[in-house]
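Dear U.,

For the methods section draft, I wanted the exact inputs and outputs in one place so we can describe them consistently. I've listed the two proteins in the order they'll appear in the manuscript figures. Please don't edit the token lines directly; just add comments below if something needs changing.

First protein:
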Amino acid sequence: MQLIKLIIRSLILSACTGLTLLSLSAQVHATSDLERGFAAQNNGDFSSAASYFQTASESGNSEAQYQLGLLYAEGSGIEKNLSKAITLIQQASDTAHLLAIEWLTQHDDLTTTSEEDDPEDDC
């Protein structure tokens, strides 16, 4: 009976270790996309930067969410879309990203207008 418990614990430990490594791998990939996004942005290639930030953003990287939101807000390398900008920057602020929180505070008039214009709120 103890042998069975030991085998089960080993399997659980292996599964947890595998999930942890998989999670870390996704974070490393997101970081490299973030770094590529910054490099493209520094070279003036905002379209490529947006693509890299998008990939990192989908992995939950709050800095990428913030940076992509800024590109949407400015229409740099991507079609200007304040609604997407606010959504992305709000996601970043939800993880306590200080610049995202500051941006939302400074652009409170945009977030209020965006919420008032949302047709889903009228239902």
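Second protein (the one for the lower panel):
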Amino acid sequence: MVRPPIERTVEGDFRLDLSSDERDLLRGLPAQLRSLLDGDLDDPSLRRLFPPAHEEDAEAEAGYQCLVRDELLAGRREALQVLEGTVDRERLREEELHAWLRAFNDLRLVFGTRLGLTDEISARDLDPHHPQAQELTAYAYLTWLQQELLRAVAPEPS
């Protein structure tokens, strides 16, 4: 039986079993997203990270974004920082695992937007020789690892 990449321990934290290649990938992704977040927040690839609440009313939308954007941005940066700071650890605390999940979700949203993935088109449907194959691979890996993290954090069935 193959050992899962992450498991809850009897102490309540989570043991990580990731290869050095996996850790290298995870080490580099936060900087890529952070450079987008530090740049033009109107970049189309960030649209799903800051979804509009009032598309039909520009003034209401501007007010909404003024209220929530800084808080959303701070939360996204914090999750990326936790991922970067813990990627080489063998164990994570539950709050760190949740930060990984938030960072993975944000990364997947950006990759999915760049790749044009929708409910009708998934990563499995794209050609591995696609010009964005590297992003496609990262997206597929993050999707799988996110599922594994969710499995590990889910309460045991009783």
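Candidate sentences for the figure legend, describing the second protein: Helices lie at 20-37, 58-86, 94-115, 133-153. The chain has one domain: 13-22+41-152.

Thanks,
Y.
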